[in-house]
Amino acid sequence: MDTILLEIIEEIRRGTVVDHKVLARILHEHNKNLKDNRDHFAKKHLLPYYFNAKNTKEELWRSWNVDEQTERALIAALQMKPRRTASGVATITVITKPWFCGNDCLYCPNDVRMPKSYLHNEPACQRAERNWFDPYLQVASRLRALSQMGHPTDKIELIVLGGTWDDYPSEYRTWFMAEIFRALNDDAMEAHAAERRALYREVGILNDEQGLASAAKDLQEAVNDGKSSFTDALRALYGNNAAWAKASAMQHATLEEVDRLQEENERAQHRCVGLVVETRPETITAPKLALLRRLGCTKVQIGIQSLDQNILELNNRHTDPHAIQEAFALLRLFGFKIHAHFMVNLYGATPAGDKLDYEKFVTDPHYLPDEVKLYPCALVEGTGLAPHYEDGSWHPYTEEELVDVLSHDTLITPPYMRISRMIRDISACDILVGNKKTNLRQMVEGHIEKTGRAEGVRDIRYREINNRTAEASDLTLHDVEYETAVSTEHFLQWTTEDDRIAGFLRLSLPRPDAVTAHEGLPVKTGQAMIREVHVYGAAAKLHATSKGAQHIGLGRKLVETACEMAKEAGYESVNVISAVGTREYYRNLGFNDAGLYQNRPL
Questions:
Q1: What is residue 48's predicted lDDT score, i.e. its pLDDT?
Q2: CA distance linking residue 370 with residue 468, whole number of Å
Q3: In the beta sheet, which residues pair with residue 509?
């Protein structure tokens, strides 16, 4: 391994751009005489080895004589999955423990080892099980992995998944958030993680695949065969489990403790610059959103799936368009980023109906999300959809039909929306029928390009600058204005000549009548709201310079422009729904701490 690293370092010193071809050549030279594949050197091992040498074998590392510039080039060459931080932050997903759900949707997986709708084969779920669903341990393991892959971890977006957030007991939710911040703040994380793992082993909760599979086997088969409900299986597996009871007794924290941990995180090594939870529209109320803000939440993933009341009822989705509209209104007035889940090919749906449904979602002022997960329904064993497939009343769209629907939806997605994904992280072996191709988005974009309509794709993800370099002088600031049921929205975007986005800001100008019509709001009439500021480019360390668009003043200019626009529109002040780790940034821009937000007088 030392020899390989030295060869790469020498190539860098000679001015060689060490791309995947150069790296493959070097690895091939070292692997070609090794008969056993298990002995082969792999790219994924190089960077962890380098960091280990730097941290634990100082004499060896010094002998390599790696200066700062060479190290940056080395990390860039060896970094795994660079897109993970191309949007400007490192993302960590954590999963809540298995729990009951207030819905029993036809399409929803019923894996008794997981929260409702998730499967134990999904990558984030596998990590959660290995870490006993403990948020501290999940965050710690991902921080370690991201660092080993060469990604900066000082700016973290935390995504909390696990069905419906408000279905969990309040004390568990508070504890879960406290432990997330505790992990981000902890300078002795490895030692404390080891202590915590030992505690779970002592309590007796399983975390090995063989033991988990054996414990759940009979109950899972009963659920799949329709002999037991998901809720009854959960009660049998966890409700009377002494080990889980002991763990639950430890899982509590106070809001005051969360406040203290958040204050520490404002100056921590790993700062939380975004915090996301997922829920259903019918659970959203003003008091619950106020609590989410207290916990540090900045974005809400909300399961919509469809706006068609008939489709919702056919799929046992216990909500309605009015509840969805009210949820969107409250989320927007609170300043949250709205990340919606929308599905095609549900039971009872047709390709033509799906197109009309999505058109309404992206044009009706009552909806208009900021982001959307747009993915097809697929049949998983043990779901309520299975009988409908067996009797022929539901079938998956053909590949041609599916690509056509998603291409249509992509082309009508407005420029202020981001299609975050088109598939779920469900393993192909778990999908009985339906799309199993992980490159579905590429297929859709390829179809659009083949039909000569690529210029019509306006969604944010398609236009992100990612790791490209950007000079401020090459960027133009554009404003996309649109009306919602409760506000005038401005999407301010820095774009290149070829319409790639280097950064954007979401400014919301709430209508006074909408504010006064909703009780319990923590905002007042006359207050504008900055709902999101995002600058793209490879994630740079705090106060450092990245090779992309970050740290060249784009964010500051966006905020100043938004404040000027709000003042011209007659607003007295601007709130920002800042994350815990960005509070200091906004203080430097003239914002003052003001309860659940930060506020700047105009």
A1: 67
A2: 24
A3: 488
Would you state the structure tokens that stand for residue 73, as one six-digit string? 């080039």
Q: Any residues with CB less than 8 A from the CB of 14 and at least 6 apart, and which?
A: none
**Is-contact 251 175, C-beta < 8 A?**
yes
pTM of the model: 0.87
CB atoms near residue 389 (< 10 Å): 17
pLDDT value for 36? 56
Q: What's the token pair of residue 276?
A: 């996301």
Please tell me the distance from the alpha carbon of residue 249 to that of residue 242, in angstroms, as a whole number. Answer: 11
Between CA 501 and CA 349 the distance in angstroms is 35
Which residues does residue 510 pair with via DSSP β-bridges, in sequence order?
487
Question: From CA 143, how far away is CA 93, in angstroms rounded?
Answer: 11
Amino acid, single-letter form, for residue 524? K
Measured CA to CA, the distance from residue 108 to residue 396 in angstroms comes to 15
- Do residues 586 and 578 touch, judged by C-beta distance below 8 A? yes
Amino acid at 421: R
pLDDT score recorded for residue 4:
76
SS3 of the chain: helix, strand, coil, percent, to 5: 45, 15, 35
Tell the burial category of 409 from Cβ atoms under 10 Å away from its Cβ (0-12, 13-18, 19+).
Answer: buried
Backbone angles phi, psi at 594, to 5 degrees: -145, 75
Structure tokens at 222: 């009963």
| 62 CB-side CA count, 13 A | 4
Query: Token pair 């079938």 is at which residue?
Result: 395
Order of strands, sheet of 501-510, starting from the edge strand that comes earlier in the sequence: 476-483, 487-495, 501-510, 527-535, 573-576, 597-601, 592-594
Residue 515 CA from chain centroid, whole number: 29
Instruction: Quickly tell me which residue has 């199993």 as its tokens.
Output: 436
| CB distance 1 to 49 below 8 Å | yes
Those residues with Cβ within 8 angstroms of residue 372's Cβ, 6 or more apart along the chain or in another chain? 339, 340, 341, 342, 361, 413, 417, 418, 419, 420
Q: For tokens 């993800």, what's the residue? A: 461
- What letter represents residue 569's amino acid? A
Element (H, E) at 194: helix 189-203
DSSP 544: S
Which two structure tokens, joined as six digits, stand for 363?
A: 């044009």
Residue 398, Cβ neighbours under 10 Å: how many? 10
- Residue 370: closest CA among 476, 202, 484, 511: 484
Q: Determine phi and psi for 460, rounding to 5 degrees.
A: -60, -45
List, run by run, the mean pLDDT of 10-residue segments along the chain (602 residues). Answer: 76 73 72 62 68 73 77 68 58 95 91 94 94 97 87 92 93 98 95 96 94 95 94 92 93 97 97 97 97 98 97 95 98 98 98 98 98 97 95 97 98 97 90 94 96 95 81 90 98 94 96 96 97 74 45 86 98 98 97 97 97
* Strand pairing category for 371-376 and 337-344: parallel
Between CA 591 and CA 586 the distance in angstroms is 5
- Local structure of 8: helix, strand or coil: helix
Q: Name the E strands within 112-236.
A: 155-161
Q: What are residue 473's phi and psi, to 5 degrees?
A: -70, -15
**260: buried, middle or exposed (CB in 10 Å: 19+, 13-18, 0-12)?**
middle
